[in-house]
Specification:
This protein has 213 residues and is of the alpha/beta class. The protein has 4 helices and 10 strands.
Amino acid sequence: MGVAFGPVASAFIQSDAPVSVIVGPVGSGKSSATVIKLMRLILGTPPGADGVSRSRTIIVRNTYRELEDSVIKTFFAWVPQSSGEWSPGSLTWRLDVPGRCQHDVMFRSFDSAGDVGKLLSTEYSYGMLSEARELPEELIHMLPARLRYPTQRDVPGFRGRVLIERIRVIRRIGSTVRLWSRKPKAGRYSSNRQAWPRTLRILRICQPGTTKA
């Protein structure tokens, strides 16, 4: 796309890990790198038996206002809105080329543990968590289990991916990755430490001074 990223962002973009995490200071290009990586995954989704590539992506921020003011603007700064069909009512962008591809990108807010129920009604291919330190910890645990589209019957061997931007602190303890979320505010966030589910234990963590962990 004509932009040169540094070694950390480049390693993040090229990582094929089931879950990729990028952290860094404000203005370091985390959001841009995450959008570019996401589009690389979407456009590389293998086709089904009919030759059509299909995917469904959920992009999450903690409030709709922040989705509109930040995440959606960054997404369309890199992905021409006119290249697909944008529905502001449903906050969904669709890239639909008959006979070739059908990709949906859905922008959603999850600002409390109760909102995680929104996740249970739909299956996805990819998930992107923006400013993950502000999101319910339950969402980070549940999202990988919803990455089941397309199905193994339709595209054997397909594996979904989760992209996580800016968790406050991450620790690796043996083979287990643990998340220390920020101190709960008004009872909205889980404060207990939990081992991440098995599907999250293979991580590439990109942060200043490292390319993987």
